[in-house]
Amino acid sequence: MTGQNLQSTPVLAFLTVSEGEDGNCFGGLLAVNLSGRPLEFHCTAPVRANRAQQILFGRTLQAFVYGEQISQALLAGMELVPVVICTDKAPVLAVQVHVDPTVVLVQCEEKAEEITLAKDTAGEVTAGMSWQTGSFRLTIDHRREQHRAEIEQLVELFGETVDLDEPFERIREAIQEAQRSARAA
Amino acid sequence: MEKLKIQGRIEEKTPSPVSVIQWHDRGGADHALSPAATLFATGWQAALGRLGNVQLETSDWHAPAPRVVSIPLAARPPRCRGFRFSRDVTLLGQAADPPVVSSSSSGQPGVRPSRRTVTRIRPPGDLVKLQDRLYYMLQPPLETLFSSSTLRFPFEPFPYQFEGVAFLYPCYSGILADEMGLGKTMQAITTIRMLLRCGELSRVLIVCPKPLVTNWVREFGIWAGEIPLAVIEGNQTRRSWQWQQSLPPVQVANYELLVRDREILESAGTHFDLVVLDEAQRIKNYSSTTSEVARGISRSRSWALTGTPIENSLDDLVGIFEFLSPGYIHSDMTARQMATRVSDYILRRTKDMVLADLPPRLYRDAELTLSEEQLYSYRVAEKEGVVRLEGMGEEITIHHIFQLVLRLKQICNFDPTSGASAKLDRLEADLEEVAASGKKAIIFSQWVGTLERLREKLDRFDPLEYHGKVPSKKRDGVIEQFRQDPRHQVMLMSYGAGSVGLNLQFCEYVFLFDRWWNPAVEDQAINRAHRIGVAGPVTVTRMLCLGTIEERIQQVLIEKRQLFDAILSRTSVPESSGLSQQDIFGLFDLKLPSPGGKTGPILVPASETNP
After folding, report:
1. Mean pLDDT for chain A overall
2. What pLDDT is attached to residue A122?
3. Out of A40, A44, A156, whose CB is closest to B110?
4. Domains of chain A, CATH where assigned
5. Pair (B443, B301) in one structural domain
6. B530 and B407 in one domain?
7. Among residues B325, B353, B381, which one ends one of the domains?
8. Are A72 and A48 in contact (CB under 8 A)?
9. Of A19, A31, A27, the residue nearest A44 (C-alpha)
């Protein structure tokens, strides 16, 4: 996120990671405007943890790959500055210590599952703050508790037009398309 | 904690008052045992008067360094690809949206609206650049856009209409070929509106038949009221000025005017981001002036709207594609090849496919026997006609055949001498029933003369007329009168004037007094009444005189429908892909005059000719 904050309207970012059958992970980041229209899209090359990382990171591996490696790389490429970063993958919350915008884990009711919060790479358990709003359960890093009211306002603003967990499907399809294109090239 | 091991042995030595034991550790630090410690250590020897001879042996403190293997855990950041899309919101964003009658928005933030379907825009198959493909793939579902406060709609569109918009949105060349009555106009307007608002279009030209210009203006008012629109009209000076204006963003012109202003268009060098041809079957004839002029318009996108992309033969489709993508298909292709090739460029839905809730069309074939007078006149005319045709030898053309066909069809309507008509008798009986039930009916005929005759005979039903003899300016008023005034229960309409673009869904009865040459035009006529908004089932009465040319034409219509369905549904393609001129000559058991000659497409006989 090296670009200057030139945008006149709020931008919402959606970040997800999809895992292929071969164990490769692909990250995708979509920035949208108030209408849900795409402004920026970034995706990563396949990422795979090596054997040593798998052994040594143990339970923190996903937080490392999703949060440290993929999410940081994606966010670094953004030109626009999002007001909030939504994700549907709990380990992505680990990137919070590296970025200014609040990272929010979005889980819709029907897909709700037990949230196992990721451990960050230092091994410290990241305690989250969760609450229900409309059809979604939102979770943020406990160190961002003071931003809860702000997040609720943003959800209200975007929630009128953007289905908060729908953009993740777009990202997954776009990642597949980019991969197809890369294979064909 | 470091551990030291001191090894030594005791020897007798000269006593010394102080004895210090010193050594160095591995790190080079000095260590020493204090005198007290020495005394303590040698106390018993001192007590014996001897001093111990302590010799220190230093062992090597420096063990070999273990080998270390370093495993880098922090990998390099993965490679990323970034795509940035246009951030132009709209030039029209501040304008007022159409009033919302209903909306699918739940109105409660954060609450997922309950939607039946999610319609996504798909990139067309021929779009190669990844950035462009992603741009379309990453667009939000149409339902999301439609329910948002930024893009309001007066009515909740049907799911298939969302699909239509999703088809047109990324489309640079394509045909929306929905059956009449499914809202092609609305789908085109909605897509244009969205593309204008996101800055992908800035100048659009819509070309339609003259009677439909007001229809387009009205529909734009309903579906995209905030979009400024101009109708190209007036004298030549005014039109010339209009053609050169880049605003308003949407201009509507009719086909006849387009041909007339050909030179103005060419000299002005006007470029359109999108040209939409409504009732695009108008350009099916590749060599026609209309087709030439339409193809000559400078444009980036080309859409064709038609419920009947194939009216008579595959050449009709070839003609339309010459506008969309010249050379993409050609007449030498088989129906199967053509169907495969065009499948990505045509979206065709029928009411049966998408409107399960729409009341049904009930077909009644009124198979009638000619009256005695009609039968006599018919036999004489047929006999004389065939004899004359046979006598023409090699001079005979398809037009001679058509002349005879038209003559016989007219006799099936009315006996030329006595005015007797089996069809009229049946029609009057049916209309009594319609009138008694308070319903409304449309009667279609190919000829204005027939309609005028019917007007006299059906005077008690106070019929209205809508055909080529009714001036264009009065036609909207006629439709409105029919819609509003309960006294007028019958509308007499020609296929030519009334088969396209009109919304008459308040009628529940349609009579086809005579049959058109192809089923598509008949469908168009029927669908004036059987369309979205229709209250009840639409009863279609197809009048047919047994043992006449009409029965033979009926067979032709069945074959044509098979062809139409085959191309557009991509299912089984019949071996016989259409009606050849040989088939037409075969109606009277005549042979095609000369080999190699006159094998082109069949021309539709002139409509609305007076008998």
Report:
1. 83
2. 38
3. A156
4. 12-178 (3.30.2170)
5. no
6. yes
7. B353
8. no
9. A27
pLDDT in tens, B336-393: 888 888 888 999 988 778 777 677 778 888 888 899 999 999 999 999 988 888 787 7
Contact A79 B87 (CB under 8 A): no
Residue B154 belongs to some domain of the structure: no
Q: Is A2 on the interface with B (CB under 8 A)?
A: no
* Residue B593 lies inside a defined structural domain of this protein: no
pLDDT tens by residue, B300-322: 999 999 988 887 778 889 999 99
Kindly determine whether residue A135 and residue B111, on different chains, have CB atoms separated by under 8 Å: yes
What is the tally of structural domains in chain B? 3
- Cβ distance B89 to A33 less than 8 Å, yes or no, reads yes
* B198 touches A at CB < 8 Å: yes
Mutate to test the interface with B, among A35, A98, A181 (most CBs of B within 10 A): A35
ipTM passes above 0.90: no
For B500, the domain range is 361-586
Q: Any chain A CB within 8 A of the CB of B111?
A: yes
Last residue of a domain, one of B305, B321, B353: B353
* Residue B428, H or E segment: helix B422-436
Q: Do both B275 and B329 map to the same domain?
A: yes
Single pTM value for the model: 0.65
Contact B343/B321 with Cβ under 8 angstroms?
no
Count of A–B CB contacts within 8 Å?
138
Distances (CA, A) of A167 to A41, A92, A102, B340, B486: 11, 16, 18, 34, 53
B131 in contact with A at a CB cutoff of 8 Å? no
> Do B252 and B315 sit in the same domain of this protein?
yes
8 Å CB contact of B137 and A170:
yes
pLDDT at B380: 93
Give the integer Cα–Cα distance in Å for B366 and B554.
13
Considering the domain architecture, whether residues B307 and B387 belong to the same structural domain is answered as: no
Question: What's the CA gap between A91 and A111, in Å, rounded?
Answer: 17
| Domain-embedded: residue B268 | yes
* CA angle B23–B24–B27, rounded 5-degree value: 165
Q: Is B125 on the interface with A (CB under 8 A)?
A: no
Domain shared by B378 and B422, yes or no: yes
